[in-house]
Amino acid sequence: MELQQAIKTRRSIRQYSAEEITQEQLQTIINAGMLAPSAGNQQPWHYIVVKDRAKLDRIPEFHPYCKMITNAPVAIVVCGDPEGKKWADFWVQDCSAAVQNILLAATDLGIGSVWTGVYPEERRMIGCRALFEIPSQVIPFAIIPLGFPKQVEAFVEKERFNPQLVHQERYGAHG
Ligand SMILES: Cc1cc2nc3c(=O)[nH]c(=O)nc-3n(C[C@H](O)[C@H](O)[C@H](O)COP(=O)(O)O)c2cc1C
Q1: What number does the ligand 1 atom closest to the CA of 66 have?
Q2: Domains and CATH numbers, the chain
Q3: Ligand 1 cavity residues, CB under 6 Å
Q4: Cα torsion angle, 88, 89, 93, 96, sign
Q5: What angle do CA 54, 11, 107 make, to 5 degrees?
Q6: Which residue has a Cα nearest atom 12 of ligand 1?
Q7: pTM for the full model?
Q8: Exposed, middle or buried by CB within 10 Å (0-12, 13-18, 19+), for 151?
Q9: pLDDT tens digits for range 104-119
């Protein structure tokens, strides 16, 4: 798939079929996360791969907008580890870039995904920490359920270009 097509057709997919995601596909997706840009190339991320059905099904107990996880075969929990890093405060941006790379790589493979935010919501972070035994200096950032889309029309291209949000040379000047 061309990059432009992946960008245009990536959608938040929240219904998944039972089809398994292979180890090779997971590797490709996580590798895309690790190839994201990061401040000072500090790569402050960790990726927890979760397939255990019992664990996945507990996520909605602390994340109210992650109910789709109960029909996803796998999820990746992206965590940030800013401790001791020179550019520690950039960890959110670093992890965001990693998540976006993951979403696009999944789209490229025909795999549905959705970014469900954890940080900075305290309850979600506490729940994640407990369930996945995340050490105190590591911050759970996002949960990404993954699965082949159930709906036939999953990767629908959307038009969102808004010229009002584009400024020429100075704020408020639209071309
Ligand atoms: C930081 C962030 C947090 C999000 N959290 C959730 C979430 O908790 N649950 C969910 O279903 N979608 C979540 N989304 C997905 C957005 O709802 C979705 O990206 C938006 O509606 C646009 O739709 P699209 O992804 O199909 O283009 C999140 C997206 C971002 C960027």
Answers
A1: 9
A2: 3-165 (3.40.109.10)
A3: 11-12, 14, 65-66, 114-117
A4: positive
A5: 80
A6: 116
A7: 0.97
A8: middle
A9: 999 999 999 999 999 9
